[in-house]
Amino acid sequence: MSTAHRISDVADIRAFVGAGNAYFTLRNSATGGRVTYNVTREEDGTLTIRAFTGTENSDRRHYSYLGTVADGAYTYAGPRAAVAGLAAVAAETGDRWLAGFCASLAARNELTDRQKDVLRERCRKHGVVTAAVPFDDVRARGFAWFWRILNGGTFPATFEFWHEGRCAACARRLTVPQSIATGLGPDCADRLGIIRVTLPVAA
Ligand SMILES: [Zn+2]
User: Fold this and answer.
1) Ligand 1 midpoint to CA 193 (Å)
2) Which structural domain range is residue 84 located in?
3) What is the mean pLDDT of the chain?
4) Is residue 203 part of a domain?
5) Which terminus of the chain has a lower count of CB atoms within 10 Å, N or C?
6) Are residues 90 and 51 part of one domain?
């Protein structure tokens, strides 16, 4: 028996994604293409977005960092965000070399391999976390698209949102049919103040 469950209601999808520890798959029914994500909520309310890049989809270690959502805005942690992060470090520490390096990179549309190497090295040194998935990867593009549509667009008829039968807040296995329909266990739904929808969701 399959444990995958579909959520169709956009409000339910939004609640699921932001619940705290959500694992979900976006599927295009026309092509069969799918991408799987883990979204966790940090202490300060920021969401951390990871894309499934490994072999075990219930294990967060098999997911790669993509970026963050803060104040509703998704930022891919690519080179542009890395430069901005390092520029903030430079401003804080008064590191003039780093400030100059960031200014020269910010003025470019494309970075040389050497610049990318130095950028990576400086990010490591200063603790600026960068995405492990390239910008043009379907998993990176997929989340950017999903977040944009989720916040004001209309999903195409071929769009499908699936979860694997685990609570979006605590990742425990769901057993109650109504919980499976929305992807949140009864206790977590109460704690998050989410009003339960009693309509059955087509699978
Ligand atoms: Zn739960």
Assistant:
1) 13
2) 79-126
3) 91
4) no
5) N
6) no
